[in-house]
Amino acid sequence: MALSKIGAQDIVLKLYQAKTGIWYDLAVKDGIDISREPNVAASLSCEVLRDAITPEDGDIVKFVLDGGHNQFLGSIRKTQKYKEWCKITAYDQIQILNKSEGYYSYENITASEVVKYVGKAAGMSMLEPPHIMDSEYLLPATVEETTWLDMIHNAIEATYNNTGKRFYLWDDCGNLCFHSQQWLAEESHIQISAGYITSYSYEEDVADIFTQVSAIGEVKRENEEEGYRKVTILKNDALEEIYGTINKNVKIGEGENAANLAKNTLKDVENRIVNFSVSGCQGDITVRGGTPVKVDFFSEDNMEYIRGWFCVQSVTHHFKSGYHDMDLKLERIKMLDDWETREPDWSYPNE
User: Which is the most buried residue in 4, 159, 304, 313, by most CB within 10 A?
Assistant: First the structure.
């Protein structure tokens, strides 16, 4: 197994207390864990020494790697205090979006503009470009009365349903970011092979399998008050041959393209009937929720090659004893045959 080696002096955890207005360096007991998932707040957890300074809920922590690269900035939301040590859990600013509710009515704007509106309403810092990438697709008339984070999730989902292009929200140490999956693919270049992990789990999950999609919508007739029901059906013949005809209904929203919605819904199940988890993978701090990862090694348990592109559904980075490794949960984006080495078509052009 190959791990990313780092020196103890290269890891610094700082604490800011508003009541003193001072930054302090914290002594960490064992190690630091940073967990990330797509489009939700990242978290940092560790145990720190209780000396003259005891961390409290609401204090700010900052994790610095390699002498000056900020990797995490968040607010402590959970503490467990012992005699000499205090276990802390902090979340970045996206957790605020999950707590705050609002109202937003819009039409013909992009998901990127929804992110900008929400970020501004929540008083968050955004640097654009390149932090907020243009998602291009214009959303139909929408009225939202929910949490700020759900507004962004809904805009992301509508963009994907109509374009097949994934976008991800994340926090870069105090700056709200919004990027495509292609951008994340270009940021990280890791490959999972036998020499870079400790253990793995690979299994098919067909609990929610379907082989056909019916996109259903109401279409108004010209000069008539009543409309008619339109159904666009798309199926996967290969899956249907194995599992039979299992239909899934999806509702066409105003302004949505039925064919694109059916195609992208079916594409989800085509790619993601395989779940893959790895532990003790070589560390790469650029990996976050949504990052594409190439997998290429022979599974002795399954007696077959596991080859393809997978999407990170969750990652926990471990910084301990001078080393950095990570645990990953992945879902398949694209299978690769033995002769293929190409990347997926991140643009997902519509037919």
Answer: 159
Pairwise CA distance, residues 152 & 336, whole Å: 32
**Contacts of 241 by beta carbon, 8 Å cutoff, 6+ apart:** none
Euclidean distance between CA atoms 184 and 43, whole angstroms: 19
Instruction: Give per-residue pLDDT as tens, 287-305.
Output: 999 999 988 887 777 677 7
pLDDT of residue 67: 67
- Which of 110, 103, 166 has the alpha carbon at shortest distance from 139? 110
Phi, psi (rounded to 5 degrees) for 197? -140, 160
The secondary element (H helix, E strand) that includes residue 271 is: helix 258-271
Secondary-structure percent of the chain, ordered helix, strand, coil, rounded to 5: 20, 45, 35
Residue 184's pLDDT band, with cuts at 50, 70 and 90, is: very high
Contacts of 347 (CB under 8 A, 6+ apart): 165, 182
Strand partners, 232: 215
Cβ–Cβ < 8 Å for 347, 165: yes
pLDDT at 351: 30
Specify the residue for token string 């864990």: 33
Q: Is the pLDDT of residue 148 over 90?
A: yes
Q: Which residues contact 320 (CB under 8 A, 6 or more apart)?
A: 30, 31, 32
Region of poorest pLDDT, from 59-68, 249-258, 287-296, 321-330: 249-258
Length of the chain: 351
Token pair, residue 75, equals: 């607010």
201: Cα separation from own chain's centroid: 20
Quickly list H helices, 169-234: 181-187
Residue 347 has pLDDT above 50, yes or no: no
343 vs 298, higher pLDDT: 298
Residue 235: strand pairing partners: 212
Exposed/middle/buried for residue 204 (C-beta within 10 Å: 0-12, 13-18, 19+): exposed
